[in-house]
Design goal:
Helix content: 25-40%
Number of domains: 2
Number of strands: 20
CATH architecture of the largest domain: 3-Layer(bba) Sandwich
Low-confidence stretches: none
CATH class of the largest domain: Alpha Beta
CATH superfamily of the largest domain: FAD/NAD(P)-binding domain
Radius of gyration: 21 Å
Structural class: alpha+beta
Mean pLDDT: 95
Order of helices and strands: EHEEHEEHEHEEHEEEEHEEEEEHEEHEH
Length: about 375
């Protein structure tokens, strides 16, 4: 590894890789430091793999703007790089007491620039998805699914083609600002290295807030705290009840126990919300009664014994239990004072969908 670079990216999840791609393709000498032996091993690979349309997020928020822009960019990138994906569409289903909430969701989606939604009656839903029970629904044709592993590999290939470097098994030990440069101390399996860079981009996901303590002169009074929302998933082997994704009405912390599809049609349900203090990816089979109860609100014929524990993911949150999800935070040196440092904090859903748009936002902020 050279001891000098234009940009050091911490974290090789999809957002970190997208940022590295955007900067390397603009001619910058880019190095990505990833603490794991492979890219995309944490939040990027432990989620529903959904390309969101931009329905849910507060109008004017980064989540809303970057989701809508990122959705279109991601579909185009999938076509360009031949990444497996499918625009399977999604139903957001409402029961009788939720009709006002469904109308509000439609208004928000329109304000966010999501103009392809269709309001469906129960009879219209039954024609599309006979197994679903609801009073009404929104059909989102621009929602889809993606092979996240292929997406990660395509980003890595583009970084390599643009002469960027990804250093695996490498973590940031400390960073020190010197005028308009930052010197980062990195530790890999075999050595410790100092890297002099112009920009340091913190895309460390679950570890992004902990990383702030390793940066000299970063003001402690910024008050950031990490919260971890574990999401458990259960699979439904032997049954393929839906052709579309099926989502209940969202809650303050999540999009509800929804039905998602793998590209082979396998149905999976989740995530729930389990607030945890440490990273633990085990799925507790004892959580399945809550899954059955929630799923049967819209799929009443879910058979007993159909669900099996699948996997869990953990979402990096900026706020804790009982609070509405916070917006993405892209924090530059105008806010914190450390020249050259950009922090991406609380990058949860729709981070996968928005990843290419987040990268463009970061590149514009760094280079404008």
């Amino acid at each position: 590894m050279d001891n000098r670079a234009d940009a050091l990216i911490i974290g090789a999840g999809v957002v970190g890789l997208a940022c590295a791609k955007a900067l390397a393709q603009r001619g910058l000498n880019v190095i990505v430091a990833e603490r794991n032996p492979r890219a995309g091993q944490e939040t990027s690979s432990r989620n529903s793999g959904v390309i969101h349309s931009g329905i849910y997020y507060p109008t004017g928020s980064l989540k809303a703007r970057l989701c809508v822009a990122g959705r279109d960019q991601l579909y185009a990138y999938c076509q360009e790089r031949d990444i497996m994906h499918r625009r399977c569409g999604k139903l957001v289903v409402a029961q009788a007491p939720q009709l006002d909430q469904l109308q509000s969701l439609l208004k928000r989606a329109l304000a966010n620039g999501v103009n392809d939604l269709q309001f469906l009656t129960a009879a219209e839903v039954a024609k599309l998805e006979p197994a679903v029970r609801c009073t009404a629904a929104l059909l989102s044709p621009s929602t889809g699914i993606i092979d996240v592993h292929e997406y990660v590999l395509a980003l890595q290939a583009d970084i390599d083609t643009a002469h960027g470097l990804i250093a695996f098994n490498t973590e940031l030990i400390s960073a020190h600002g010197y005028g308009d440069r930052i010197v980062a101390e990195l530790r890999s399996i075999n050595e410790e290295t100092e890297l002099d860079c112009r920009f340091l981009v913190n895309c460390a996901g679950l570890h992004a807030i902990d990383l702030l303590r390793k940066i000299d002169d970063y003001p402690a009074d910024r008050g950031h705290r990490a919260y971890f929302a574990k999401g458990n998933y259960f699979s439904c082997h032997g049954f393929k009840p839906f052709k579309h994704l099926v989502y209940p009405m969202p809650t303050e912390a999540s999009l509800g126990l929804h039905a998602t599809l793998d590209l082979d049609g396998t149905t999976r349900f989740g995530p729930d919300v389990e607030w945890v203090e440490a990273l633990d990816y085990r799925v507790d089979a004892a959580r399945d009664p809550a899954f059955y109860a929630s799923i049967r609100e819209y799929w009443p014929n879910l058979p007993d014994g159909a669900l099996q524990p699948a996997f869990a993911g953990i979402r990096p949150k900026l706020v804790g239990a009982g609070k509405f999800a916070a917006d993405f935070l892209i924090e530059g040196w105008n806010e914190h004072g450390v020249v050259g440092l950009v922090n991406l904090l609380g990058i949860e859903s729709p981070g996968l969908t928005a990843s290419l748009a987040i990268a463009e936002e970061v590149a514009q902020r760094l280079l404008s």
